[in-house]
């Protein structure tokens, strides 16, 4: 669903860019809280210790899975947008940043999604999907039992709805700033129709991923905070919940477990982007198909970086298609995890510094009294 340059006119693209920039600024502030943890305790295993390393990995995983276009019928394919997955795993503010990092890497390194359309793509693919998905997810988990299955089911529904919602927002932007004179009713019907089908694939991928992480470490899932598997005891022949305990997980065990999840996720991302992506559907995605069928692409412009060494997810001067695509995927995952982790480390570090400054001010440190 990456819109190229030329689909939306310059004024609306600029307005979308400003809106996206504002949303990213708000997300940076919100992510400082999510990555810094919600507890005042500085003990290892706090929210920030768990979330910050995972956020960069989530961005890399989304990049990898977006390379795996899956067929949805009628010569059309779809791919993960990732807003729902990111919001549920690491929080809505951090989720917006995760998908935005992916879109930026794709536009700059791989000429996927126009540079002037970057604001449009962030608005539709990062902001809309994250807000819609997380709002629906939180509403569902409030009324469903606090179980792992409920979290997975809520993730499925949230992801399913987020994709056609993104299509609706794109259609609205096109209605205001479209560069061709086409039937908006037909475009809206086609966009929503095909993206409902793509949403099913998004929902399956999101539910499987969230379910897998929740099964291993529910404390690493932002949307599953407070979800703990209660120990069962047999009393008089009946199973009852054991009394809750506040005993924390040993720090070395927790650190090893988080490291295992991170390494497993990174290896999975590399395999998906470097090998499995070769078998992805070659059919145009939902937006490309609708654009071709309804004439939206009449004034599409060539990407400014179309001649870059990694354009179209291939490595320049590597003739073997499988090797070229695989190398591009591995490079993309590596660059995205480094860029994402760097951004989130800086955000979390600033949160930590703010807390330290506040603590020193409250305690009347020597620096505050001029000693």
What does this entry look like structurally?
- The chain has a single domain, classed as Arp2/3 complex 21 kDa subunit ARPC3 (Orthogonal Bundle).
- 64% of the residues lie in helices and 4% in strands.
- It is built from 10 helices and 4 strands, in the order ααββαααααββααα.
- It has helices spanning 10-36, 47-66, 83-90, 92-110, 118-143, 148-177, 184-216, 251-274, 286-294, 321-363; strands spanning 70-73, 76-78, 232-235, 238-241.
- The strands form 2 sheets. A two-stranded antiparallel ribbon has the order 1-2. The protein has a two-stranded antiparallel sheet with strand order 3-4.
- Strand 3 and strand 4 form a beta hairpin.
- The longest helix has 43 residues, at 321-363.
- It is globular and about 70 Å long.
List keywords for this structure.
single chain; 371 residues; mainly alpha; two-stranded antiparallel sheet; globular; disordered C terminus
What's the structural blueprint in terms of helices and strands?
Elements: H1 10-36, H2 47-66, E1 70-73, E2 76-78, H3 83-90, H4 92-110, H5 118-143, H6 148-177, H7 184-216, E3 232-235, E4 238-241, H8 251-274, H9 286-294, H10 321-363
Antiparallel strand pairs: 1-2, 3-4
Helix pairs in contact: 1-2, 1-4, 1-5, 1-10, 2-3, 2-4, 2-8, 2-10, 3-4, 3-5, 3-6, 3-7, 4-5, 4-10, 5-6, 6-7, 7-9, 8-10
């Amino acid at each position: 669903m990456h819109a190229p340059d030329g689909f939306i006119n310059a004024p609306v693209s600029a307005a979308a860019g400003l809106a996206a920039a504002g949303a990213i600024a708000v997300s940076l502030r919100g992510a400082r809280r999510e990555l810094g943890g919600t507890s005042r305790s500085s003990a290892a295993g706090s929210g920030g210790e768990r979330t910050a390393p995972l956020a960069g990995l989530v961005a890399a995983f989304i990049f990898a899975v977006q390379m795996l276009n899956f067929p949805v019928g009628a010569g059309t394919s779809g791919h993960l947008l990732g807003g729902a997955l990111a919001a549920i795993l690491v929080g809505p503010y951090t989720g917006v940043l995760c998908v935005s990092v992916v879109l930026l890497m794709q536009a700059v390194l791989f000429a996927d999604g126009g540079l002037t359309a970057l604001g449009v793509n962030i608005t539709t693919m990062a902001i809309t999907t994250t807000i819609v998905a997380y709002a629906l997810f939180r509403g569902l988990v409030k009324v469903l039992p606090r179980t792992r299955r409920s979290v997975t089911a809520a993730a499925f529904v949230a992801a399913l709805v987020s994709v056609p919602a993104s299509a609706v927002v794109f259609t609205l932007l096109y209605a205001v700033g479209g560069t061709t004179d086409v039937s908006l009713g037909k475009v809206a019907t086609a966009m929503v129709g095909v993206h409902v089908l793509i949403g099913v694939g998004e929902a399956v991928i999101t539910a499987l991923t969230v379910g897998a992480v929740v099964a291993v470490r529910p404390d690493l899932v932002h949307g599953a905070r407070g979800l703990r598997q209660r120990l069962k005891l047999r009393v008089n022949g009946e199973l009852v919940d054991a009394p809750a305990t506040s005993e924390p997980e040993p720090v070395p065990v927790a650190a090893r477990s988080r490291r295992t999840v991170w390494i497993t996720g990174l290896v999975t991302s590399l395999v998906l982007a470097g090998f499995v992506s070769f078998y992805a559907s070659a059919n145009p995605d939902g937006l490309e198909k609708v654009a071709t069928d309804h004439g939206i692409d009449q004034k599409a412009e060539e990407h400014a970086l179309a001649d870059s060494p990694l354009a179209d997810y291939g490595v320049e001067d590597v003739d073997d298609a499988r090797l070229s695509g695989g190398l591009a995927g591995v490079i993309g995952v590596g660059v995205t995890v480094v860029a994402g982790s760097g951004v989130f480390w800086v955000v979390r570090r600033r949160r930590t510094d703010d807390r330290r400054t506040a603590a020193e001010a409250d305690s009347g440190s020597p620096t505050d009294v001029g000693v």
